[in-house]
Amino acid sequence: MDFNDLKGLIKVPKLSSNNDYWLVRAEAGKYFQEFYLEDYIAIGWNEMNNLDLICENEDELKEQIEELYPNENRPGLIKSQIYTFVSEMKKGDIVLVPSKSNNQHIAFGEIVEDDIYIEEVEEYDFEKYMEEFGEQPPCPFKKRREVKWLKTVKKEKLDPYLYKLLYSHCTITNANDYSHFIDRTIYSFFEKDGVLHSVFEVKETNSINAFDLNSFIGSMLDSLDIINDSIDHKLDKRSIDIKLNVQSPGLIEFFGKPEVIMGMTFLGVLVIGGEIELDVKIMNGKLNTEGLIEKVRKFINSLKENERQTIKLKKRLKREKESLKIKDPEIKLEFKESDQQKEN
């Protein structure tokens, strides 16, 4: 098995730069749990449900909002929020929804349909409902979008670059300027615009040791030397770029050509016994993973010519990762039935 065979097994999320990013507030987090458990986001102003008007005539939309909500001081803002939800959001866009209690949790999800839907819901007097039933009423917002939730993050573990975004208190805020920080929060191993990103989380809460940090980066780059001695073509370590945000805790992000980052990350994780998840796709009947395990074993065996270097690298990486309390990126190996059929 050569490196090209291994590349076919590694599952890499491929993100599109055509997708937009949005911060959506659930009435100050009031309906966060319902959004999350029932897989949707929603927006209020229920009297304005003429979707054709919303999409096609913004001027008339504003006029109707002024008639329907005469006590609102900013009808233009309401118009903008409704128009964004109905006309600008689309399938594949990423949404962030903060919970209440000072944004203690943030849910990250993906819109799964282009079309919104109107949910027929009862509207309750909030205070009376709370008094009678001891809990808040169901979300009354009718205009909804279906969402697949990808991840939730506690605020204290959120990327610091996203804090400023949370200061916005509009119902919907465009978050495209924060797209990269959102991507690397959701995924620690992903490809976008032909560039592969590999994110290592530094969980050390005390001061970061400069020697260990520098040594870890060097060890990861050295893993490519071991691979290059075992494959026909060469992976150029000089093509790798890096971003650091190691503020106890923080992130180390390697990015560059997909095959280079893939080789470095895979060996850098596997060589010290890191966790790699198996994603088994069963097409017909039962399936075992012996074929997959054998492929990986063959690749590792191909590195035996550099066993001394591999053992040396393993010791260095283990020490450096323990010192910095580094969490490896999440790597998945995808094994399909067709792969086993080829083996047989």
Key phrases:
344 residues, 14 helices, ph1033 like fold
Per CATH, the class of the largest domain reads: Alpha Beta
The profile of the biggest β sheet is: 7 strands, mixed
Question: What is the fold named in CATH at topology level of the largest domain?
Answer: ph1033 like fold
Supply the number of helical segments: 14
Structural class: alpha+beta
Number of separate domains: 2
Percent in strands: 15-25%
Oligomer: single chain
Q: Given the C-alpha coordinates, what overall shape results? A: elongated
* SS elements, strand count: 16
Q: How helical, in percent, are the residues? A: 25-40%
- As a whole number of angstroms, the C-alpha radius of gyration is 25 Å
Level-2 CATH architecture of the largest domain: Roll
As residue ranges, the low-confidence spans are 282-290, 338-344
Q: Tell me the span between the first and last alpha carbons.
A: 15 Å
Question: Would you list the SSEs in sequence order as H and E?
Answer: HEEEHEHHHEHEEHEHEHEEHEEHEHHEEH
Give the rounded overall mean pLDDT.
84
Write up what this structure looks like.
The protein has 344 residues and is α+β, with helices and mostly antiparallel strands. The chain folds into 2 domains: 3-14 and 193-343, no CATH class; 19-186, ph1033 like fold (Roll). Helices cover 40% and strands 23% of the residues. It contains 14 helices and 16 strands. The strands form 3 sheets. Strands 3, 4, 5, 6, 7, 8 and 9 form a 7-stranded mixed beta sheet that branches. Strand 10 (189-192) and strand 11 (195-202) form a beta hairpin. The radius of gyration is 25 Å and the shape is elongated. The protein starts with a helix and ends with a helix.
